[in-house]
Amino acid sequence: MAAHLGVTCLSVYLTAGLVPAPFITTTLTVINSSFTSVTAECSVLNSRELMLSWYRGTVRLMETSSPKLSSKLNLSLEVDVADGDNYSCVAENPVERKTTELLGKDIQLGNAENSSWCQNEATIRLLISAGVGLVLLLLLVDHIRL
After folding, report:
1. Which tens digits make up the pLDDT trace of 9-64?
2. Are residues 56 and 85 in contact, defined by beta-carbon separation less than 8 angstroms?
3. C-alpha to C-alpha distance for 21 and 42, rounded to whole angstroms
4. Please, which residues have CB within 8 angstroms of residue 99's CB and are 6 or more apart in sequence?
5. Residue 96's Cα: distance from chain center in Å?
6. Check: CATH 2.60.40.10 for 15-115?
7. What is the distance between the alpha carbons of residues 97 and 52, in angstroms, rounded to a whole number?
8. pTM of the model
9. How crowded is the C-beta side of 125, counted as CA atoms within 13 Å?
10. 26/32 Cα distance (integer angstroms)
11. Rounded Cα distance, 36 and 92, in Å
């Protein structure tokens, strides 16, 4: 009887390694009265095995990744204003996937930044964190006085 040896590799993703939501910024450039160029840039803080991709509907247009974990991933896309399609930026690793939408109607109106919910969510998280930090600081000062 032959003995079979197997090797199994296991990757563990800690909570700190979860995928952050990508952030979309847009730049509108009016070339002439009949043509406007829109560049959308998606960015996210890099983490282990992270892939950043642009999609038009369900079609992947482009992707990028980097082995440098301390870097920020950026991916720019020229958007056709006339097509009215919805675009999405996806940050994903083998465990999790986060998507930020760029809606065609918002691109045509020049309000693409306003369609990104992550700007508001990030502001709310920052304010909540600052509030919790302030409360903890006040409790510490009060405890030291006693």
Report:
1. 655 555 455 788 898 888 877 666 666 678 889 999 988 889 999 999 899 999 99
2. yes
3. 10
4. 21, 22, 88, 89, 90
5. 12
6. yes
7. 10
8. 0.60
9. 8
10. 18
11. 31
Question: Which is nearest to 23 in space by CA: 127, 125, 130?
Answer: 125
Hey, what amino acid is at 80? Answer: D
Distance of CA 23 to the CA centre of its chain: 4
**What DSSP element (H or E) covers 67?**
none
Cα–Cα distance measured from residue 26 to residue 73, given in angstroms and rounded to the nearest whole number: 16
DSSP string, 24-42: EEEEEEEEETTEEEEEEEE
Residue 108's contacts (CB-CB under 8 Å, 6 or more residues apart) are 81, 84
Half-sphere exposure of residue 103: CA atoms within 13 angstroms, side-chain side: 8
Half-sphere exposure of 45 (CA within 13 A, CB side): 7
The pLDDT tens digits of the residues spanning 79-115 come to: 877 777 889 999 999 889 999 998 876 665 444 444 4
What are the boundaries of each domain within the chain? 15-115, 116-146
Residue 107 burial (CB count, 10 A): 25
